[in-house]
């Protein structure tokens, strides 16, 4: 009988994702987690009002039909039209069939000091956080039967707008994490852990990232670095 050769075990990749860090994500309770109005605390209801909802437009018509037209004082009966659209934002008008009086309803607030709509900024930030990008966001919008995201040019411009803000919050978050680690260790001599990742297997990848985490009871990222062989800033050109 011929001897059976054992299959060689597949070597494990030495590459680890940044998400492989052991971390604790227990967050303190916030009023945003409670979506039910509470008479004992009006602030909770205010927080609920400041959230977004996806609403079937047919239900908006049903709501309007239970109101009285402010112009002709008849029970409202009419139609809904979209006068303007910017990505997920729409400017809706409810037009009375009797007197043609129009009630305007913007579906999202305008971001302060900009021409951008808040819903588009939130959607784009969510696309980055989930790693789906604009193409994935577009597919999600199709599945939800809602308007598509903003076009490529405006998406790129919004990325530049978001980057400056994110970098400020990123640095503030890491500074706070360092202070917490120093306070817990009662020393500036900290023990840290590091990790990194790259897009393709092996060491031929053109893009890579690395980070350093504290080793406190609640480990947090205290420094990050990215590098790209195709980025003029990274290679010092």
Largest beta-sheet details: 3 strands, antiparallel
Question: Which segments are poorly predicted (pLDDT under 50) over 5 or more consecutive residues?
Answer: 1-35
Distance between the termini: 65 Å
**Strand order in the largest sheet:** 1-2-3
Number of strands: 6
* Mean of all residue-level pLDDT scores: 83
What is the H/E order?
Answer: HHEEEHHHEEE
Output the keywords.
single chain; 237 residues; alpha+beta; 3-stranded antiparallel β-sheet; 5 helices; 19% strand
Task: Describe it.
The protein has 237 residues and is of the alpha+beta class. The protein contains five helices and six strands, in the order H-H-E-E-E-H-H-H-E-E-E. The protein has a three-stranded antiparallel beta sheet with strand order 1-2-3, covered by helices on one side. Strands 4-5-6 form a three-stranded antiparallel beta sheet. The protein has a domain of 57 residues. The N and C termini lie far apart (65 Å). The N terminus is likely disordered. Helix 3 crosses helix 4. The radius of gyration is 26 Å and the shape is elongated.
């Amino acid at each position: 009988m011929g001897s059976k050769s054992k299959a060689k075990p597949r070597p494990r990749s030495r590459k680890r994702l940044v998400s492989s860090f052991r971390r604790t994500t227990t967050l303190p309770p916030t009023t945003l987690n409670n979506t039910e109005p509470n008479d004992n605390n009006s602030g909770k209801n205010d927080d609920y009002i400041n959230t977004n909802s996806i609403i079937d437009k047919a239900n908006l018509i049903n709501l309007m039909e239970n109101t009285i037209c402010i112009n002709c004082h008849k029970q409202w009966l009419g139609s809904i039209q979209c006068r303007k659209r910017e990505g997920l934002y729409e400017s809706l008008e409810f037009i009375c069939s009797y007197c043609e009086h129009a009630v305007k309803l913007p579906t999202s607030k305008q971001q302060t000091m900009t021409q951008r709509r808040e819903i588009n900024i939130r959607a784009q930030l969510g696309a980055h956080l989930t790693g789906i990008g604009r193409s994935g966001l577009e597919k999600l919008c199709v599945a939800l039967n809602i308007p598509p995201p903003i076009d490529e040019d405006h998406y790129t411009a919004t990325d530049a707008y978001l980057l400056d803000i994110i970098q400020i919050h990123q640095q503030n978050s890491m500074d706070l994490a360092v202070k917490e680690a120093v306070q817990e260790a009662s020393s500036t001599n900290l023990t840290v852990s590091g990790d990194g990742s790259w897009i393709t297997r092996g060491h031929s990848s053109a893009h890579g990232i690395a980070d350093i985490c504290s080793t406190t009871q609640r480990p947090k990222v205290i420094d990050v670095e990215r590098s790209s062989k195709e980025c003029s800033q990274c290679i010092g050109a």
